[in-house]
Fold this sequence. Notes:
single chain; four-stranded parallel β-sheet; 404 residues; ten-stranded antiparallel β-sheet; D-amino Acid Aminotransferase, Chain A, domain 1
Amino acid sequence: xxxxxxxxxxxxxxxxxxxxxxxxxxxxxxxxxxxxxxxxxxxxxxxxxxxxxxxxxxxxxxxxxxxxxxxxxxxxxxxxxxxxxxxxxxxxxxxxxxxxxxxxxxxxxxxxxxxxxxxxxxxxxxxxxxxxxxxxxxxxxxxxxxxxxxxxxxxxxxxxxxxxxxxxxxxxxxxxxxxxxxxxxxxxxxxxxxxxxxxxxxxxxxxxxxxxxxxxxxxxxxxxxxxxxxxxxxxxxxxxxxxxxxxxxxxxxxxxxxxxxxxxxxxxxxxxxxxxxxxxxxxxxxxxxxxxxxxxxxxxxxxxxxxxxxxxxxxxxxxxxxxxxxxxxxxxxxxxxxxxxxxxxxxxxxxxxxxxxxxxxxxxxxxxxxxxxxxxxxxxxxxxxxxxxxxxxxxxxxxxxxxx
Length: 404
């Protein structure tokens, strides 16, 4: 049986291990911590720090067929990249990852490539201030032009430490903190947010399926909807952007793009040149497209001889359907649907099917648990039916929690 080694047992590790299991692969999980959520999903576990691997770890990795990095420790990724000649294929494009993990470098890349993205706050202030001055709308004591703004840390992917600010005082306070210059402030855009995964291998680019994202108050993704209504115009434009980004990055492997459909058109929010969490499982549940399996087949050249690699970008053979993916926290006799950060504090996860009506759950729930977490997958033929299933499941969980 083919074995996939997964380096890291957090959010990405959960995603990759689950999808590898669904593809019928054996999984080896490597992490320096013993208690990590993905360990409960893996077939084998090896405690080690990839940033300083010893011979035992390298020998064990050599027994695997393919390696999926599932962490954002740059020293570990750099060390893994340096060992390519002595290990099985590694799904890692270090150069693309370095660029995408820096929001500052990503913004510069967007601008140079002519890709649509949110404007820097100084540009917003300059443009809006000029417009307001021309219209004589500025009054004494009025807030400066350009607010509210979205503020992000320069380094790191994802939504960690992203916040909304509404005044110049808040911005000045952030910029005055130690580490001055470590934030990016840009215009606040409103509209639906979409995600697209793109796989690139040997000069071929395969855009996959588009999902819609919903966020909690900390801008952490709380829910992914696959199979909902996405206009043909948005699909065409987002796929075109995905191809351009992959081509300009010289990408090898996988990345995801996050865009917002603002009034002024699609705007790139961020790119992450690594295996993402959340959206691949939603795509798998809705359409049967397994991104781990695609990468394994491409890197190990296991796709059927009569199947062109173009198969992957068309979704041929995928079951039409819909799905919802979300995280759930039960705590203090309350039920919260919240961002994925809660899963980093989960115990060992187990897969449970037909979990209070949800098709699949990855959860640390045990009968009698007072506090527990779960990733819930709902799927069906239509988004309407999936939403109905979700409501029935949450009603059952709420009833359980109320009974104590």
